[in-house]
């Protein structure tokens, strides 16, 4: 995708430094956070804001984005923290990046490329003044040829941010995310999933049980072991295609090693592992909305399984396990995230649109 930088690494050079604070005509205060240390210091207020935004996904949480910037991000950090009377009312996590091929300076959301839903966080009751203040301050400080924001859901905060006066704007379709609406009970899965899919699931489960001793585990059974198994199995599967896979980068691996314990402690991790005769042969890495959210979602992020056991259909076993566990836990939607792989539609998922928004200043105004 043209707005995704090449796999970057953090230089780790940003340390300390106070955020620049500027008053806004609305009475809000806008801090421009430009150092990694400053971003880390925002974590407590960031968590409080994330919990107050009903539409926020785990991808907007500090548990996901702080490890991303620490291990994957490069360029110049430019995060706007908008406050009212000291309380964080909005957080706009951006960074400036110069495209190596063209030198074009772009304003990207933190988390780009490895994150399926990108967005800012704004307290709903303060949305209008916070968005206006963020737009004004970005126009003054960003210094980029364009702001390029992909993977925005319908109703995204970043879709609502006012374009600065005189700026050109384009919104276009981005990669859809197939989603499966879940019933209230496991017994009612047949109302959402085809009979053929459920029959096939029963068949592959019997076949797997005949192959040896099966045991399912969740993240409480050992996050580190499951992650290392996921990295190994994902690499082995992609190696059969002569490709590296999206988890091959050491920087990306370091990001997930740092993020998983944070997600786990926050209750946002769902890590399903399948053991066959004691060995982990399949892993599904998913994120979860916290309890109390309307339309609570399970986000099926990535999986890996032993390519030598493909006859046992480990991919179907993983999805079947995750879907049934999600129903039992009260999730409303299983979100399969980006990609139009056939198996997602086999389960009855339907595309949810996402959007890419690009804004450009008047010629010579960047």
Automatic annotation (TrEMBL):
Transmembrane segments: none annotated. GO terms for molecular function: transferase activity. Residues 196-344 form the BioF2-like acetyltransferase domain. It comes from the Bacteria. Keywords: Transferase. InterPro entries: Acyl_CoA_acyltransferase (IPR016181), BioF2-like_GNAT_dom (IPR038740). Pfam families: Acetyltransf_6 (PF13480). Residues 1-25 are annotated as: Disordered. The keyword Transferase applies. This is GNAT family N-acetyltransferase. It comes from Roseicella aquatilis.
